Amino acid sequence: MIRQFELVEMVKSYDPDMDEMILNQAYVFSMKAHGTQKRASGDPYFSHPLEVAGILTGMQLDCDTIVTALLHDTIEDTVATYEQIEELFGTNIARMVDGVTKLSELEYTSETLKQAENFRKLLLAMSTDIRVLLVKLADRLHNMRTLHHIQKSEKRSRIARETLDIYAPLAERIGMQELMNELESLSFPHVYPEAYESIMKRLDYLHDNTENIRDEVINELEKIFLKNHLEVEVVGRRKQPYSIWKKITYRNVSLENQADLFAFRVIVDGAEDCYRALGVIHDYWQAVPGLLKDYISMPKPNGYQSIHTVVIGPQRKRIEVQIRSTEMDVIAEKGVAAHWRYKNHASKKDGVHYRWLRDLLEILEHAADPEEFLENTKIAMYQNQVFCFTPKGELINLPAGATVVDFAYAVHTIIGDNCVGGKVNGEPAQLKRVLSNGDQVEILTSKAQKPHQSWTNFVVTGKAKAAIRRNTRKQQNNEYRKLGEDILRHSFEERSREYTKKAITAAAKKLNLKGGAGIVFEKVGSGEISNREVIEVIFPHLKENKHSLGGGLVKKRVQKSGNNQLPVKGLIPGRPVHISKCCHPILGDRIVGIVSEGKGIMVHTIGCEALDVYTDAPEAWLDLSWQAHDDNTEIYIGRVDIMLKHVSGSLASVLALVAQDDGNVSNIKFTERSVDIFRIELDLEVRDVKHLTDVMSALRASKFVNSIERAFA
Ligand code: MN
């Protein structure tokens, strides 16, 4: 066990200004808190936080991190509380300890790789301070180093798999090659015992039965660099069994000779020397085309810099050489920890709260490759995401602000559609409840439920929004279809024709509508095409004279204006006249004319809102009145606004009532719909105001009509 003064000396060696008092205090506090607790190895439990602290001093991390390491299991495993730690060690350290505790509380359960990726993001998202993640990784490393003390083999392999799936890739992501290698090597034999065994056998065979190429490569490299007056250090490191295995399984390469077992590294002083060294190597050995990678001008997102090349070396064997400077080498091995050390030196004294993201982004800024840039933004995005669990422990990854409904849709579209409520961490929650990291969410469903338009007010995910929109459109289209069929059936009856769906299907073809009768119903119901258009393609001979009102009057559409035939007094001879579309004045209405340059005379009802803009232009106004005569044959269109009960048959009955009174419906438009009400704009063809008033009072008397009014806009 590391002794108290030893730990202090270790930190002091790289940080002479450290706060000795607080470190001593943490040492004693943790030792007392863990008391007589024991590890699986039989060692006192305190040895664990102490070793974790030791690992972190190896990365030369600051005193706060070392203190956090000493305390990291006290909240979870002892009677110590957050408040106690805050009082003794301050808010910063208490928060970091709490952060590590939260990461430890997350149990990784799922087996799938996709889940692992989400879980890694969750850990990143929750590590608001990079040091929290570093303590967690060191904690895992020590647990892996002592894994053999755990009795049950299933438990060993579960922990090892978690390490391989979650923690080793995290170490890689923040650039800690060395840590990643050790985590992988410790896990590999527990997770894939057979693969491990066969790789090791193969490695033994290659060592025993092929020439030792390693020394030969190192010797030759040293010789040529000497000749070229370049001072370098050449290393031939054995590749890790797990990384060899990854290469074999993912890239499908075979292990043929010893050159495959080593990564040769040439370490030089500065960046320019890297390129010189590369030139020297390529002069001497032939390079394999296409395998040169320059991570110096384009560093990896995690800050890694190096030049990789593959050459045909001694015995015509391919060898891989990495060229980098001393500083690049430290960063490649220690990653964010090294970076943290370099960058943080200046700002440490300011007590600036250090955020891992800022640091990572600084590294990422140098990434020039678009793919790397994408990776960069992805990491930044983790801070805007929440990660929640299903009751079975599956992780669901959502954008920040996501609600219960978003969660439901993320699980499955049908779950989202039928979602009636939820439970968050066992407590009932409303659909619009915003979720937080780590929430466990259970969705309650009902088959009777349908997505509600109002959900779009609070959902944030595209999937939920699209599903809700799709569904309201579907519901609306269904209503349009029912309505359109009602309208058409009625139009047939009105013309004493037998209604058949077949006729409508034929009409769809003639109208060039794909989707058969259904689409015709939909378009008529929505008012996109009029019932008359449909009738006219089915019965072309009805076109000329059958749009009759009572009395067989032949209709002339006044709206196709431009004529001066209107029975209106007060017009200016020679000036064209138009019936305004905004207020639909009809014979008998009190009317005025507006004279406008180039447009002729517009006839409005006296109450029309469109007249407001002419209040200050009296010269534009023209006094008009109707000139009724007995043989009036004009047809006018009066627009009415109806609130109708949303029950089946209600619309058909309205249409029947209009027909009974010799009116005709020329257009129907839905303006609102709800569970129990339709609001419709009906354009009624009538002879005059009295006719319209009659139709309206007949409608008003209907049990289906809640209200009816003339619409002037
Ligand atoms: Mn621990």
Q: Please give the alpha-carbon distance between the first and last residues.
A: 88 Å
Please tell me what the overall shape is. elongated
Radius of gyration (CA) equals: 41 Å
Question: Percent range for helical residues?
Answer: 40-55%
Low confidence ranges = 344-381, 544-564
Secondary-structure content class: alpha+beta
CATH structural class of the domain at 549-713? Alpha Beta
Work out the strand percent.
15-25%
Number of helices: 27
Oligomer: single chain
Overall mean pLDDT: 81
- CATH topology of the domain at 549-713: the name is Alpha-Beta Plaits
How many β-strands, per DSSP? 21
**For the record, what is the CATH homologous superfamily label of the domain at 549-713?**
ACT domain
Ligands bound here? manganese (II) ion
Largest sheet: 6 strands, mixed
